[in-house]
Each structure stands twice: as structure tokens, then as C-alpha cells.
Structure prediction request, 426 residues.
Amino acid sequence: MIEQLRSKAKELLETKAVAVVIGYGEGSVPGATRPVFIVRPEDVGKLIWNARCANNLTRYLTRKEVLRLGKPAVVVKGCDAKAAVALAQESQVPRENVILLGVVCPGLERPAGDQCRQCEVNTPPGCDFVFGEKIENQPDPAQAFLDVAEIEKLAPEERRRFWAEEFERCIRCYACRNVCPLCYCERCVADMNQPQWIETSAHERGNFAWNIVRALHLAGRCIGCGACERACPMGIPLMRLNRKLAKVVLEKFGYRSGSDPKARPAMASFKPEDPNDIFR
Amino acid sequence: MAEKEFEPRIIAFVCNWCTYAGADLAGTSRLQYASNVRIVRLPCTGRIDPLFILKALERGADGVLVSGCHPGDCHYTAGNYYARRRWIVFRELLEFVGIPAERVQFSWISAAEGGKWADTINDVTAKVRALGPFQGYEAPSAKGKP
Prediction:
């Protein structure tokens, strides 16, 4: 499978269909992987694929340094491919400006939280090419949000204590933001200081606001790739926050991010018959 | 020395065209209602960012009310529809992290509903008084409730 991926990458580069192939390569220590940017056809041997290829490479689709190279081809797992859909929906990266090289993924060796357990996109949809033997998996929808339900069933004080302890560890490194493919704002709200909406020091007040607001800004947009939780150096279970909102958006508005390129994002649209029960 | 009874501070973010006018009507009608509320006027509920509510809670509010035109009656046609989706999501997230829903409430109050404004403020104030002061974002202590 890797040979097919490499030869397709070589072909795309030789015909100048793309200027750069963004894929996974060997990491700096044995067993690790890291992103590689192949610009010469003879370098495609650097591309690898295994269950430790966790990074979401679509992050680079909104980075000026990469776009400057020219049209990219990106190696994507099913979860990563959803980011390309979301970016096209939000008019950030037109679908025709990128070639998606999908790889069939049975699940990561070390997934972030519950990410791989309920995967329905082992065979990535919507890609220009797909490599690997196709896997069909229909997960049980009733099992979809068990990690969220774990928190939901706690009492309010217990929930507060759980999140206060988690957010206490946040050091405001913004790794979660920097690695998220959908956090592409040139100037993040957390960086604004006139007025300052979110306190910048690693104090519980600012930490709470930062994590809440990032989750809110990703409502209906987060594709559940788990990059944020993986990147967090303090091991905060960020996926649970994002998946809680994905659950709310699905239940209340019937919308799932990254599935339909033609759909309007949930928070940028409305229906007159949206639920009204929380309003007096 | 007797301890002063806790009086909650309520911040109300309201839309200019409906709820603010409704509050004004409550005033001109000389309706008596709880004086714990401070009103912040915005052109439309669609303008209200969840950050305003978080900031209000950080800076000493014990409860927040967000109120605007009824769906279909927005002065800007659809602002309150977008706001409605936003609040549904925001409220669920607040509950998920342990901030009770009673602290942040939402209503549709039109310019003619002065009485509803007074009743809503009284009700919100009573509920927040029962909850006690908002302790901030630390883990709940023995004193007050989250």
C-alpha cells in the first residue's frame, strides 16, 4: 500500500500536478513519526504509513508558509479528511486547491480519548485517491458519546471539581489551538488586549474562559481528529469538551461537521423551528 | 455583627428594540421589581457574544439574563435566530462544566411586555439568591454553591 502511495506522490510531483506532497515520515526517535514535505519526486521514499501516524496534516492547508510552495497534496486519514471538507465549507481552502491522498486506517496505536473506537470513516470519504484495503465499519450510534456521558452523569459540583482540576493544569501554551486545523484565525480572540476578553496568565479564571471559548468557537466545526488532546502537554481531556458540543449540535440541530461539503455550518445558519425550550 | 444577607448581582444583556423597551415600559408603568439587575443594552441578541457572559461572571455577577425579541420579530430579521442556536450550545457547555443553568437564563421579552420583564427579573433574582454567590471558577468550596 505504501508503494502505491509513494508512486502516486511521485507521479503528482513529476507531472507538476502538485508542488508539494505533505505526508508522514520517520520521526527523530525510533517508532516516532513526523510530517514531511516532499517537493522532489526522488524523495517520495520518505513517505511512510503506520498506526503511529497520528498528526492531522490538514493543519498545514491554512499555513502561509506551506501555501507559498504551491498546490499541495495531503495524506489524510478519514478523520483528517473531514477537516478538508470543513475548510472548504468555510471558504478557506476550495476543494479543488488540494489533492487528498486518503489512507485506510484501522485505528491509531494511541488514540486521543475515544477517538478511534467509534470511527465510521476508516475508509476516508471524499478523497481524490484512496490507498489500502477498504474497511467498512458501521459503529453503533447509541455508543457514540460514552466519554461525554461519563461526565454528564456526575452531579454539578463533581463536574465543577473535575474541570477545575483539569483546567488548573493548563499552562496556556496554546498547543491545542496551534495544532487544530480549524483554528485558523489570523488573530485569535485570546491574543486581543483592547479589550482583553480572556486573561492571558495561567490562572484558573483565564484557563476556564480560554478552554470554554475555544470549545464554543469549534461548536459544529470540530471534526474530532484528537490533535488537540494529543498535543496538550498537561494531558487535559479536551476531546470531551469538543465532543460534548458535537453531541449537542447533532441532537439539537441534526448537523455533523465534515460530512456534507454543501451544507451550511450549524452555527452560521438556523431553522425557524429550532428548539425553544430554554427560553422563557 | 449581623452578617448582611446576600443580595445577588444580576447583569442583563438585552436587545435595544424589544427587551430594553419592555424594561422601559416596566419603569414608566411604575412596576416594582427587584433592584439587583444592571442592564446592558445591545442592538440585538445576535450581537451578544458568550464572552460577555463569561466576563460578567468573572467580574462579580452572580447571575446573567440574556433577553431579546421573540423569534420572528427581530428588528434585524434573523439576529435572534442565530443567537438562539448560540445560547442552546452555550448553556449546554456551561452545565457540562458544572455551572448551573439557573445562573445564566434566557428569555424573549417584547417591547410591550413590561410585566413579563418585571416578573422575569424577580424570578431570576430569587433563583440566584437561592444559589448563593458565584464562587468563580475554582472548585466548589464549603461556603457557596457553583
About this structure: Chain A touches chain B through 46 residues (CB under 8 Å). The longest strand of chain A covers residues 20-26. Chain A has a mean pLDDT of 92.
